[in-house]
Design goal:
By secondary structure, this protein is of the alpha/beta class. It is built from twelve helices and eleven strands.
């Protein structure tokens, strides 16, 4: 059976500030080529895979595609769940009925898992389909390439939120602020708060991530010293952070602990999903890279011959960092395109390397800041303070 001439876009898991930019890249590149006829998007996520709820994205006007690049989140819901043998049959029936030969899956670890599921389903049910994953994650959770699309914008949000938390604590009636950012298993998003610091803004004074386990007493002492020196203290943490004894150091726990031990009012702020999709924090570089990945996925799907089908089905298009080319972009950084076999992508979250963590477990090394700084798309707004 020949491969179908249409393509399907599926989003799995949390949207990011640039997920729609990936979709725009797919639509634009598909329209520019000749190997894709109709472009469908799965409405409602995989929970509705048996209902044939497809959107005709190829029929949209140019203005719509341009608007996608300015619109955070995702026009395709990423609702996800565990899939069954019945879902595999429903999926392959959908692909046959709609003459779909290429499936683009956008998302984090849920997306990688969905590509694996599609591979197994089409192989078992005899459908000729090319499945390509596009890792997009605000928490940088997919361990493929240098970083995930979506992370740069979320990192910019984290840095700005941490800097603003310092301003709120310094000028308000709650001199200790705990900022809890998303990150159950990985601390890449919380670590980006280190980019908030400069000569005028010393906050955050501590950064806690799931990869490090400081003692509770050391964290309290570090923030007590910050409060005594500056008159306020800010700590960034995640829902997955723990101390050396294995006890939670999430936002609510920390706020209660610091209020009790230091004896001043503390509050906990949780931006939650806003950290993932804030339009105000979109990184220009991140948005460009997201569209680039969408375009790359389409171009790659058109270059695959019948003999290469099995080799290329089940790959991820990824971003690599050019470390050698002299003609580089902003601040010596340039991303280059790459691919990685889905089978070689870990099923668990990407973790911060030990070299980027301080010995005490409550700070982030400058080497991380150097790696992350180009991804946020330029310097944060400069603040001023009384000398």
């Amino acid at each position: 059976m020949a491969r179908g001439e249409n393509c399907l876009i599926i989003v799995a898991g949390h949207p990011t500030a640039v997920t729609n930019s990936v979709i725009a890249g797919i639509i634009e590149e598909s329209g520019a080529g000749e190997h894709i006829a109709d472009i469908f998007g799965l409405s409602g996520g995989v929970t509705h895979i048996s209902e044939d709820r497809l959107l005709d994205l190829g029929a949209q006007k140019r203005k719509f595609i341009e608007g996608l690049r300015r619109t955070p989140g995702s026009i395709l819901a990423g609702t996800h769940r565990m899939l069954s043998d019945e879902d595999a049959i429903a999926l392959t029936n959908l692909l046959r009925t709609r003459n779909i030969g290429i499936v683009f899956v956008i998302g984090g670890l849920a997306g990688i898992g969905l590509v694996r599921f599609i591979q197994a389903a089409v192989d078992k049910n005899g459908v000729d389909v090319l499945a390509i994953g596009i890792p997009v994650s605000s928490e940088n959770e997919v361990d493929a390439g240098d970083h995930c699309a979506g992370y740069g914008s979320a990192a910019r949000f984290a840095a700005g939120a941490a800097r603003d938390a310092g301003r709120a604590a310094a000028g308000g009636e709650e001199p200790i602020v705990v900022l809890e950012l998303p990150g159950t298993d990985s601390g890449f998003l919380a670590a980006a708060a280190v980019l908030a610091r400069d000569a005028v803004n010393p906050a955050p004074h501590s950064i806690l991530v799931p990869e490090a386990t400081p003692t509770r007493d050391d964290v309290v002492d570090e923030l007590r010293r910050a409060y005594q020196k500056y008159g306020y203290a800010v700590v960034v943490t995640t829902e997955g952070s723990r101390d050396a004894a294995g006890t939670s150091l999430d936002g609510d726990t920390l706020a209660s602990l610091l209020e009790e031990k230091i004896g001043v009012t503390a509050r906990c702020d949780k931006p939650g999903s806003l950290a993932r999709v804030s339009q105000a924090a979109v990184s220009r570089i991140d948005a460009e890279e997201a569209a680039l990945l969408g375009s790359l996925a389409v171009r790659l799907s058109g270059d695959v011959s019948d003999d290469e089908q099995m080799q290329y089905s089940g790959i991820a298009v990824v971003l690599q960092r050019d470390l050698h080319t002299a003609d580089k972009g902003e601040k010596g950084y340039r991303a280059v395109e790459g691919t990685q076999q889905i089978a070689q992508v870990s099923e668990t979250s990407r973790r911060l390397p030990d070299a980027w963590l301080s010995e005490g477990g409550s700070q982030i090394d400058e080497a991380f800041a150097e790696w992350a700084r180009p991804l946020i798309g330029g310097a944060l707004t400069e603040y001023t303070s009384v000398a």
